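Please check what follows.
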Amino acid sequence: MTAARGPLARKERNREEMTKAAGLSAITPKPIAVRIADLLRERIVHGLFAPGEQINEALVARQLGVSRPSVREALQRLCQEGLLVNRPNRGVFVIELTNQDVEEIYGVREILEIGAAEIITARSAQRRREVSDELVGIASQLPAALAASDWALVSRLDLDFHTALIVHAGNSRLLRAYSTLAAESLICMFNLEQAYPTPNTLSHDHMAMAKLIADGTMTQIHSAFHRHLSGAEGHATATLEARSLDHHGPAATNGL
């Protein structure tokens, strides 16, 4: 049987192509300032810019081959996130987290995450299982990342897990409040190889919390999250103190 030809066949092919393309939208590239902010955020979180180090706007613009206004906008974004501090007449500096900062970050995280868990556990058993399954999926990736000593991936999975819980609460203001802590939390979790002397505890904690979302009581959930976050706070504080004694981490170069 030969394939149909002529105008009718062309219309049919066009209809098929349009059907395949349905639902697709144009890929919009990120604005240059957003891409610069993403790059600087990554460098800050992983300690390539030391706490307290000044970010030289002109140097960054020259190294990246971009305009200073674009860099300035990127720096303003990071100031709004709390990663940088703008000191009038002095410049922009990387935030220096103190023990009190760490305590506040994890304290507020616990409040927000327990709030999200209460919203989720008030829903149907099926919905609870769906959220639990997604969290289990994230937690199940931790053992391989830990075995490979991929601490950047470990910290990202850790934060992805907790952020997913917040997202599933379905409260935009809760998510907005939590998002402001995200970058600071990544700094707290930086160098988890030292921050977690028993890394397997990290994997076990997340799997246990994920499963409790499906069928645990709020008392059990609160206890599990409190134990995990308070332990993470203690490890982060210890790591922060160790890095402070080591002259605030790696040598600062302001290089990209």
About this structure: The first strand starts at residue 54 and ends at 55.
